[in-house]
Design a protein that fits this description.
- This protein has ten helices and two strands, in the order H-H-H-H-H-H-H-H-H-H-E-E.
- By secondary structure, the protein is mostly helical.
- It has three domains: 144 residues; 89 residues, Helix Hairpins, CATH 1.10.287.70; 37 residues, no CATH class.
- A two-stranded antiparallel sheet has the order 1-2.
- The protein starts with 16 loop residues before the first helix and ends in a 22-residue tail after the last strand.
Length: 272
């Protein structure tokens, strides 16, 4: 975490004093490493994970009478969190231009207008990807000396997000129109079979568009699998920027930088 994260907002003050105090308080809650702030960040992370679980289960729950109430409740929670994060940023306009934030805005719109954007609801799982863009998601790993597994976990998450996005797309676009896809589980089965290039052939997508979609799914899926395999089987690296050349990752026991030969002083695992 950058050392100035625990400090009040920098730069010129705009608006009433109470608003500046609120922004400083929110910035400390969302970015500080103080024990109280970390408990708040963990609580927010748990709520986010519960919301993502709801997004994954949405195709199975959407016919439930209480679905819309849950949907709007989650929309309210995300809207409060989104507003708080915006106020906690030092530059709101720059923050709004970040890709994860833009995706979160779209997800919020699908929650606020589920009737109009029902066919794009499967993109809500992208919330899992935007969640991994934040430091709070990875802090538990780093706190327990497991930072070397970050690349592997990120590769797994990227693959899972891709699988559920494609499953949602296949279910929305081809359900009851292709051989064998009559429900969400069938769409998930087709996606996994296609991504793994197993190709049982019992579930297929019709027409030229179906063939093109299958090709894209296979190409991207194989790329993600290769990325996952690389992160699992390649030697573990740790993030320790070289003071001379800036190379970010080195072997845990490295004494010299492989790029420039500069002497490194990498702390032992678990040390702050």
């Amino acid at each position: 975490m950058h050392p100035d994260k625990d400090k009040p907002l920098a730069g010129p003050s705009f608006g009433p004093v109470w608003l500046q105090k609120l922004r400083n308080k929110l910035r400390l809650l969302y970015h500080s490493q103080a024990p109280g702030a970390q408990r708040f960040q963990y609580a927010v992370l748990l709520v986010d994970l519960a919301i993502i679980a709801f997004f994954i289960a949405t195709p199975l729950l959407k016919d439930n009478p209480s679905f819309l109430w849950i949907d709007y409740t989650i929309a309210a929670i995300l809207l409060i969190d989104f507003t708080a994060r915006a106020l906690a940023s030092t530059d709101i306009l720059r923050w709004l231009r970040q890709p994860p934030v833009i995706i979160d805005v779209f997800i919020l719109l699908t929650l606020l207008a589920p009737g109009w954007l029902v066919n794009l609801g499967f993109l809500r799982i992208l919330r899992l990807w935007t969640l991994t863009r934040g430091y709070a998601f990875w802090r538990p790993l780093k706190k327990h000396g497991l930072a070397s597994y970050q690349d592997t976990i990120q590769a797994v998450i990227n693959l899972l997000v891709f699988l559920f996005v494609v499953t949602g797309f296949v279910y929305t676009a081809f359900a009851n129109r292709s051989d064998g896809i009559t429900g969400y589980v069938d769409a998930l089965y087709f996606t996994v079979a296609t991504v793994t290039t197993t190709g049982f052939g019992d579930v297929t997508l019709p027409g030229t568009m179906g063939k093109l979609a299958s090709i894209v799914i296979m190409i991207i899926g194989i790329s993600l699998f290769v990325r996952l395999a690389q992160s699992i089987f390649r030697p573990n690296k740790i993030v320790f920027p070289c003071p001379q050349c800036g190379l970010q990752k080195h072997d845990p026991d490295a004494v010299h930088c492989k790029a420039c030969g500069h002497i490194l002083n990498i702390p032992n695992a678990g040390e702050d």
